[in-house]
Design brief:
Strand content of chain A: 25-35%
Distance between the termini of chain A: 44 Å
Largest sheet of chain B: 9 strands, antiparallel
Oligomer: heterodimer
Radius of gyration of chain A: 22 Å
Radius of gyration of chain B: 17 Å
Largest sheet of chain A: 3 strands, antiparallel
Helix content of chain B: 10-25%
Strand order of the largest sheet of chain A: 1-2-3
Number of helices of chain A: 1
Order of helices and strands of chain B: EEEEEEHEEEEEH
Helix content of chain A: 10-25%
Shape of chain A: elongated
Number of strands of chain A: 3
Structural class of chain A: alpha+beta
Largest interface: A-B, 36 and 52 residues
Order of helices and strands of chain A: EEEH
Distance between the termini of chain B: 53 Å
Chain lengths: 80, 160
């Protein structure tokens, strides 16, 4: 992993069009500004990991004998 | 030519025949399953509140999906420009939103829905994507069973 020292208002470029700038440093916390093309999704790593872990858990679900309390059917996704 | 069915091998349902129009392409896969890009929709026999999103490429992979608006009428899904482009969405009517449900084995009453990362489908272009809602504070684990119970109680009250 490349490790760079940056001060407030200094930035790092990744490729030609992704800029990561140190906006604020305060009390052990760094605020980063990220400019990237709209087709590059930017997420906090923990959010992405949370969703990944949730998906892995969800893939283990089973509902063969599932009874739900509501007698409702369908919803708008019948057209799927 | 009327025969547009294809055979899909699945762990849960055995070999199934599926209409080609029930197959969705997920360009990015799903977080945790980025290699799985083709899924089909399988109706759930016993309970039509739920459907299955079955992987075409991985027989053992299937998710339970659910219509979130049944339990949360004001559920607000913001699809950004890039996601609209990826999914080739240009008409609101072509969009269907579902969420993935997690059902712990033997404990259906503890089932939860992931409202933080809904699935967005373009039913015309047959494309799908799991998007992450950053702006709203929607939970990763919303208790579905409880919400459905409360709703059916309300309905019963209304009827009596």
């Amino acid at each position: 992993m490349l490790v760079l020292a940056r001060q407030k208002d200094e930035a790092v470029m990744i490729g030609n069009n992704i800029e990561i700038k140190v906006v604020e440093i305060k009390g052990g916390k760094v605020r980063l500004g990220i400019s990237a093309p709209s087709d590059i999704p930017v997420h906090r790593k923990e959010v992405f990991e949370e969703i990944r872990d949730k998906n892995i858990k969800a893939a283990d679900s089973d509902i063969f004998d599932l009874e739900t309390p509501s007698g409702k059917t369908g919803g708008s996704f019948t057209n799927l | 030519m009327t025969d547009n069915k294809i055979k899909v091998e699945t762990t849960r349902f055995g070999e199934i025949e599926i209409l080609e129009e029930k197959i969705y392409y997920f360009p990015d896969g799903l977080p945790g399953f980025s290699e799985c890009k083709k899924f089909c929709i399988v109706d759930n026999q016993k309970n039509t509140l739920f459907k299955w999103l079955q992987s075409i490429e991985k027989p053992e992979l299937a998710f339970v999906i659910f219509d979130p608006f049944l339990i949360l009428k004001n559920y607000d899904v913001f699809i950004n420009d890039e996601e609209l482009k990826t999914l080739e969405i240009n008409k609101k009517e072509d969009v269907i939103i579902t969420v993935i449900v997690t059902i712990p084995k033997g404990k259906p009453e503890e089932m939860t829905a992931n409202l933080k990362a809904p699935l967005v489908f373009n039913i015309k272009k047959k494309k799908g994507m799991q998007i992450i809602l950053n702006d709203n504070d929607y939970p990763l684990e919303y208790p579905v069973y409880k919400a459905l119970s409360e709703e059916s109680e309300d309905q019963n009250k209304g009827a009596s």
